[in-house]
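Complex record, six chains
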Amino acid sequence: MMAMRSGNGAITRKFAASERAAVLVEALPYIQRFWGRTVVVKYGGNVLAEAVPAETKLDEFDAELDSFAQDIVLLQSVGFLPVVVHGGGPQIDSWLSRIGKKPEFVDGLRVTDLETLEVVKMVLLGKLNPSIVQAINRHGGRAVGVSGLDSSLIVATKSSERLGFVGEIVAINPDLLVRMLAEGLIPVVATIGADTAGQGYNINADFGAAEIARALDAEKLVYLTNIDGVRRDPSDPESLIQKMTETELAELFEAGSITGGMAPKLRSAGAAVAGGVNSVHILDGRIEHSILLEMLTDEGIGTMIVSEKKGGEDGG
Amino acid sequence: MMAMRSGNGAITRKFAASERAAVLVEALPYIQRFWGRTVVVKYGGNVLAEAVPAETKLDEFDAELDSFAQDIVLLQSVGFLPVVVHGGGPQIDSWLSRIGKKPEFVDGLRVTDLETLEVVKMVLLGKLNPSIVQAINRHGGRAVGVSGLDSSLIVATKSSERLGFVGEIVAINPDLLVRMLAEGLIPVVATIGADTAGQGYNINADFGAAEIARALDAEKLVYLTNIDGVRRDPSDPESLIQKMTETELAELFEAGSITGGMAPKLRSAGAAVAGGVNSVHILDGRIEHSILLEMLTDEGIGTMIVSEKKGGEDGG
Amino acid sequence: MMAMRSGNGAITRKFAASERAAVLVEALPYIQRFWGRTVVVKYGGNVLAEAVPAETKLDEFDAELDSFAQDIVLLQSVGFLPVVVHGGGPQIDSWLSRIGKKPEFVDGLRVTDLETLEVVKMVLLGKLNPSIVQAINRHGGRAVGVSGLDSSLIVATKSSERLGFVGEIVAINPDLLVRMLAEGLIPVVATIGADTAGQGYNINADFGAAEIARALDAEKLVYLTNIDGVRRDPSDPESLIQKMTETELAELFEAGSITGGMAPKLRSAGAAVAGGVNSVHILDGRIEHSILLEMLTDEGIGTMIVSEKKGGEDGG
Amino acid sequence: MMAMRSGNGAITRKFAASERAAVLVEALPYIQRFWGRTVVVKYGGNVLAEAVPAETKLDEFDAELDSFAQDIVLLQSVGFLPVVVHGGGPQIDSWLSRIGKKPEFVDGLRVTDLETLEVVKMVLLGKLNPSIVQAINRHGGRAVGVSGLDSSLIVATKSSERLGFVGEIVAINPDLLVRMLAEGLIPVVATIGADTAGQGYNINADFGAAEIARALDAEKLVYLTNIDGVRRDPSDPESLIQKMTETELAELFEAGSITGGMAPKLRSAGAAVAGGVNSVHILDGRIEHSILLEMLTDEGIGTMIVSEKKGGEDGG
Amino acid sequence: MMAMRSGNGAITRKFAASERAAVLVEALPYIQRFWGRTVVVKYGGNVLAEAVPAETKLDEFDAELDSFAQDIVLLQSVGFLPVVVHGGGPQIDSWLSRIGKKPEFVDGLRVTDLETLEVVKMVLLGKLNPSIVQAINRHGGRAVGVSGLDSSLIVATKSSERLGFVGEIVAINPDLLVRMLAEGLIPVVATIGADTAGQGYNINADFGAAEIARALDAEKLVYLTNIDGVRRDPSDPESLIQKMTETELAELFEAGSITGGMAPKLRSAGAAVAGGVNSVHILDGRIEHSILLEMLTDEGIGTMIVSEKKGGEDGG
Amino acid sequence: MMAMRSGNGAITRKFAASERAAVLVEALPYIQRFWGRTVVVKYGGNVLAEAVPAETKLDEFDAELDSFAQDIVLLQSVGFLPVVVHGGGPQIDSWLSRIGKKPEFVDGLRVTDLETLEVVKMVLLGKLNPSIVQAINRHGGRAVGVSGLDSSLIVATKSSERLGFVGEIVAINPDLLVRMLAEGLIPVVATIGADTAGQGYNINADFGAAEIARALDAEKLVYLTNIDGVRRDPSDPESLIQKMTETELAELFEAGSITGGMAPKLRSAGAAVAGGVNSVHILDGRIEHSILLEMLTDEGIGTMIVSEKKGGEDGG
């Protein structure tokens, strides 16, 4: 039997067609431009907490991870080389309390004694990382969980006695990631590091993502968060900034407009741009397919930070 | 100065975003699936006649070629390997009359004496082919004009004494095209062939495109025409066929539903599908970006012909 | 200043020299023969329990791992391609009890509900695996932690409703390991698997090691345990078997000589040899450098199982 | 039956042998020296006019092209990489008059309005170029017709308003030719160029050949003309110059000895040598196999121009 | 100063030119056809004896080797891959007598006791082989002396007790030669072989050359001798055979026309052709450049033996 | 039948095991460090004289060469790239006297007239070199005899009129050796050289080995002699020097401690170290496996000379 078209379909189709064509004509050059370029996506602990809650459940029902995993796989399917870096604060808190420990913070950084470090490693490497890997694999990607210990990816040193086993990054050895990307694998990185004597450290994932993006000479660094971007006035949703340069970012810092959890994220964003990453994006991870929209359409979503020099030419 | 977003932009954007995301989520898998696959596009003489009229004009004002050339370049930019094959009947007629010759046809095929052959070669190779090459180059592609004589691409023999120097294809030597595609070039082919003694022949471009598609093991063969597709009842626009198999095509021929210029096109379409080309598409070249819409969206445009075996799995 | 030799050194040295030369003349052909060949080493949970106890301590003081890690690095340094597979039973028990759960076993296999599975993943992937990785890295190797989820290395299915989330291996996708070995990396594998829907499973490490050895077409599979090998009469240390064929192993099973934890190990050993692994070795991991001695000297240590066909020619 | 030699054959053969051996001993070192080196041969319009007259005839009877095509194929067969560049003045004149236009020249350059440009393209690309391609293919070569438009080979700009669409070369993009040569193809180039906006231009073939030779870092540039070489005194056949340096060529210009059509040829010859081409040769294309004799024997034919520095060492 | 041509030079040159062109047009196709093909040249002891006499002299005055060495270097320069195999009977005799031993032969093969074997090795490897290597190097080739012992090139076994250390070839391991040819080296082979226990043997050079030609899948095997070829009637110079097939050769043997030293040469020639060598040539090495004339001209010199199947198509 | 272990074997084995393990743990890092590094071994004429005496005997009974050949093959089997350079003074003397010539020396260098040169070449290339090649092949290596003439390996010039055809090295062309090493072959070099006119020369093998080691950028140069190393006081065996730097070597020369045949060896050793060879070793070739012990154990045997800069770090 032949498939016939309904009578008025031609008109409807013709109408929709021009709009669909416009989206494609807009998207294809971005795909060409970024083909083979690396994109580091920081999957924030708060967004992730909604996708992978602390309580135990069946892996195949992690439905909230699906949109994220699909985007990563779609990006790779058209030639981007995605690297996922993830945090996990809320789930760590939950497990610490489960074994009777109380989370403690200094200046927003977790005080990490040996026992806390063990829980951090177990939650990040044993719970969250494999959940993301499995979600990407369910969508046909070939994800591989990576810790900063693997092939000495993240070399760290103790940042301060007071914080305990919190590490400061000394060096990134990106070879392992470079090879994985070349082989079509999608690395999912948990930011545990080690010093040269082999002692492990808890590393802030925002900083980790920025350093990895620099070391990989990434095209883009994307922070998926639970806010809609950077606002000039944090209390005013109308003051959202679509695009700014490093200098403008520095001015915002000086003006005291950046506070709370946004501060470390933006500080590492600035460092990434200064270090050669072409653009950093702060996106609302709760909007479906926010990564695709940011990368493949002219308008974008959230806030984009670019270097002074490249400011003019680097849309998309 | 920072670029701020207008107050109500967020809402509008959010709305449009989900639609744009849907188009992208639909298109990206096609891009992945067809990455590195060859698509032969037959640019019909009648459509081309509107783009490159017989009269002389400035090259840079061939505005009508633009949408076509842009689509070809966009397809290549996301990994398709396009090959353009073109005809040129109207322009040949025009030049023949200019030197005082009257076009003559038998069964829709041009009677080609030596002098006509010379005009055919001059119009195709010296006028139309370079126009298409230049248009693609203006859009950033790297097109290369190719005749069937080059590296013995099209080996032909005289089809009948009555038609004179009209050739029947004996063999295609696709190496030249294969290498050009591998090097990122876009071949633009005029279907002049030669026999082993070196005598040139005028080759029907529909047949030429189909044979080239077979020899290249192409994914798709697209006929850009000036009709909206194949109709069950030629006089009824409502009877347009969206998709059919080889068998259904054979039934249409038997039923006598296929007449006129559509007959050779569909006969070569059937041969191409039988010869391993995954799908043949008859599209209305006057719709802007019709190629993109056919290749990158679920619904498609025009008529698609697939082999029996692959009928079910091969959308897009 | 010149380094002079003590008077009687010459004699001592000359004497020792012939013995040292004999060891080298014996070892070098093994090195040549096994150059570029894969060796899968199963680091058993009980031996590992002494090296990495359940309680928390500084990473750099995992002194017990040192001899093991050094052997792995030395083997690689002379051309072997080592893959480490590890278990972790005792440490899992310890963490389960820490959150108030009681381990439960059926036929020697751990009954694994969802919560237990989560603890298994966290202990293996978050605690033991990184400890081994760090130890190897401290000795100059480039170890990479790998779970069976990574790039779908271990595809599993539920083995029985009664055991819960205990998986049976359906397929091994060894590409990830093959590439890592080719790049000079040392994979350290925790045998967590997943089914095609993405649900994770707890996989017996003995079986996992054997299947990985088969999939890698490994030269050797080594089980490092806390016994001295296979005995004909379990209670008689004098009855230790140095070398046997598959057939002889089958006879031992029939005779009822194999009991307890040795049964699954030897069953998977038999399957590995049948599947093409040249030899399986059961070694006492508590003897320092037992791996080196087994691989590079004529006499060997522990018990070696070879296939009937290769029995005669495959010493070392 | 055995093939026996005639009685006195031995003597005759022995005699001829030493002479034949001498030719070979002379030729082989040139073949070795130039193996894999590029030779650009400008096939002049006047010589070509005898081979491919304006009137229409059967392709396979272009007998006059045979000696030329054979030489090109022989050169390639022993490792040279030949590139043919051709003109076509006489045939263009003939076609212009056919459509009622009168050729017009300023300083030896053709005044080219839009209509003339169209005829130039049609005659060069549609008539002469395919004739040469077919002749080479008849001799077993794999020739490919190339216009300066293909892959933007010749980028040009308008040279003067007065001359209309006559182009001056701005850049050569030799990649297309380099790849063709590497693949064993023989490019046959018609010197139509285009500016960056895509407007086509008529380019002088002598200049075009010289620029292509420079861009390809060619070993030799050969002008096949209908004169016997450069004469010190144009009216005295005895004053033919066999070899001269750039400086000597400049002196000839100063002395006013170079006039007429020889001037642009020698000016571009000088530029080619200055630009790195090892030698430029002006040969009489009417002598059979003049290219072979020039390249493979010590004496040579016609006039050879070399750079000052290389003057002494570069015979053949 | 400009190089001017003498007045009447043009005429002389033009005349000679057509003849020189004819030789080139004849030779170039052979060069193309045999490019990259292996040619084994057996340099016979008798011809060699004139070039390198037994008495001691300065190396640089081995003038007689010059024509031979030049031909080998010229052949290589145009793409042939020459392998030289040499004998040395007369010089061995001379050295044996020098140490007081009398040469002894049975059926034309040298009876070889241990002491004779030592002299054979010393003369071939220490005197003749280096002389040929040096002569080729003087002409710019890169020759390398090779014995059948090197990398076990010639594996032999004792042919009979009566002959002593005369070897029969058991196997050829051509890898060493294949690699040398691929690297542009010219192997010069002395046919000393060894059995698997490492005992050396004296190998007949005619047989050795034929076996090496077979193992290398050579295009041609050339015997340079001191006769003008094979005669139907040995006493009648008029009966020289230019070309014959294997079958015709067999007929000659049957007719008893082949006697003396020609017998082993022709027997191995027949074996070489039967084993896949395209043609075997018996040439008079005393004619200057006889190899070039045989390989690069239509007529040839001496006698050529081809297989039945290839008889018709394989001139040159 | 199962192979059972004797009752008390376990204890014995355990004891020996720790010692054997210690040798291996010591050796493996050297193997890793020197993997793929070149070692030039000079096999001295005096040691060789015991292995291959002047008198004629069966090749397979050269039993004395066995330990040497086995060491070379073992070194290669674990990744070293050995090159053997040999002398042959005693055997040359013997053959000279056999043809009635009396050896004559000036300052320890052989006066070499034309006839002597011929004997030198015949003994080195025709007798000793093939003996070493065969011995290595008997042990499974793939040795290839090389003279300094091959591919112009050793370019020399006459050192003085008084010495006759004794050559001084002008240049080493190591390509041939580099390629052989890359292909797994073991070159065995006789140090005959030639000047650019092709005249051969006798080259001192100690100097030759040092120059070859420099040209190959060798890791080590080993002189196998018939003494136990360098002594501070030649008459006092207790004064053997285990390790010294270039400077210390220079001091020994100044102190007049170095005399006789040791002088040229140590002078070339100093030059080799200065030229980039990491270490030079003077060993007693009469100790079995002395090469293995020197290269793969911490203590070493004989005397090791290193450069000042590398003195501290370069044991083994």
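Note: DSSP finds ten helices and 15 strands in chain A.
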